[in-house]
Amino acid sequence: MTFRIEHDALGDVEVDSGRLWGAQTQRSLENFVIGRRNYIWGRGVIRAFGILKKAAALANQQLGQLPAEKVSLIAAAAQEVIDGKWDGEFPLVVFQTGSGTQSNMNANEVIANRAIQMAGGVLGSKKPINPNDDVNHSQSSNDTFPTAMHIAAAEALHRELFPAIERLAGIFRAKEAAYADVVMTGRTHLQDATPITLGQVFSGWLAQLEAAQEGLRATLPGLYQLAIGGTAVGTGLNAHPDFGAQAASYIAQETGLPFRTAENKFAALSAHDALVFASGALRVLAGAAMKIANDMRWYASGPRTGFGELLIPENEPGSSIMPGKINPTQCEALTMVAVQVFGLDHAIAFAGSQGNFQLNVYKPVMLHDFLDATELLSEGLQSFATHCAEGIEPAREKIAENLAKNLMLVTALNPHIGYETSAKIALKAHREGLTLRESALALGVAEKDFDAWVNPEAMTRPLAE
């Protein structure tokens, strides 16, 4: 390995001559060897920094702050970062300075050195492009990192999570219609209850997904507000007064999302309530996923000594000792995803509460955990849709068998013979091992009346007028 000498305010630093990063990235690489296998920035954050730096350069040119020849080089290098050409040049971990300064400088150094290459210059020379004076012009890490946070978070929701939710919702919507006539036992308190259709069960799961997605969309206006232009403490020092608005406009053009400059830069730098709000919406989705997956594995339990009312796909052997056993593994995986998201949300909420004066210094861990939660839910829902939900079918015979044994069908007698008499019928049947019909006839209900009144399919909707 050969080295070149890069220089920063603290002196000279040896950098691998084949790398585009510079002195400050190298210092961080050496000083923060924490969680390197799992906590290096991913594609979404690197892309967000490329978008931000390109937009900042264009805004600076428009406002007369940088010459066109410099902006052309910066924008071209930043575009390569956006396109993923230099992901290997972003080696820094999440656990660094809480403002994300080293990651901001990583982007500045990579883009500057790549621009220098394009201009035929010498890596590390800072000529004709300086990472601080040119790529970081009108900016501070304190406003660039939270801007990258919002870009990466909003894009992850649109690109990954919303399509995953919509796909699973589409499956549930189709099954709601397909199984509208499958009448089954309802259950409350884990006990038998009045009948419900399998289509209605799917409609409940569908409504949960749709409500969770609506909640996530409600967080987007906060994420669309960008801190850029606030510079060090929110005052906009060293930036043109229109820089924030112009940079946000270019970011909106690049992403196709309605980003705009934050209404209050002091809050944008010192508090990250928008991300905390969005994380809370992820938690709601995780809670819905937990409920849906648990319901499915209960309905599929058995298959012979449990409910056994749903047939789930047989994806892999379920036991290393019990031959032929099939387990609800996709349900289990999704519930574990939900548990992990609950934990990540707690971390985000705590980190979001720790802003002091004009800066919150928990930014990197907040961003990482939000993107981790988004990715886990996206992949978990997609896997669940592909390997479980699409292949679910009703076990019609088992459903009918369980429904026939359901003593809560007695509820249909309430309007005709009253609650107390109906309760006597149900308890007699349970205690003496009778069918509901046998018990009702023994206590004086006429056979023709019982057959007319106890209609499971009619019990899945309100009384007819």
Notable characteristics:
465 residues; mainly alpha; Fumarase C, Chain B, domain 1; Fumarase C, Chain A, domain 2; Ribonucleotide Reductase Protein R1, domain 1; 3 domains; two-stranded antiparallel sheet; 17 helices; 7% strand; elongated
Give the arrangement of secondary structure elements.
Blueprint: E1 3-8, E2 11-16, H1 23-31, H2 43-62, H3 68-82, H4 101-118, H5 131-135, H6 141-178, E3 183-188, E4 191-197, H7 198-223, E5 225-226, H8 243-255, E6 260-261, H9 265-270, H10 273-299, E7 310-311, H11 329-352, H12 363-387, E8 393-394, H13 396-404, H14 414-417, H15 419-432, H16 436-442, H17 447-453
Parallel strand pairs: 5-6
Antiparallel strand pairs: 1-2, 3-4, 7-8
Structure description:
There is one protein chain. With about 475 residues, this protein is mainly alpha-helical. It has three domains: about 5-135, Fumarase C, Chain B, domain 1, CATH 1.10.275.10; about 145-225 and about 265-395, Fumarase/aspartase (Central domain) (Fumarase C, Chain A, domain 2, Up-down Bundle), CATH 1.20.200; about 405-460, Orthogonal Bundle (Ribonucleotide Reductase Protein R1, domain 1). The protein has 17 helices and eight strands. Strand 1 and strand 2 form a beta hairpin. Helix 3 crosses helix 4, helix 6 runs parallel beside helix 12 (about 365-385) and helix 15 crosses helix 16 (about 435-440). The protein is elongated, with a radius of gyration of 30 Å. The mean pLDDT is about 95.
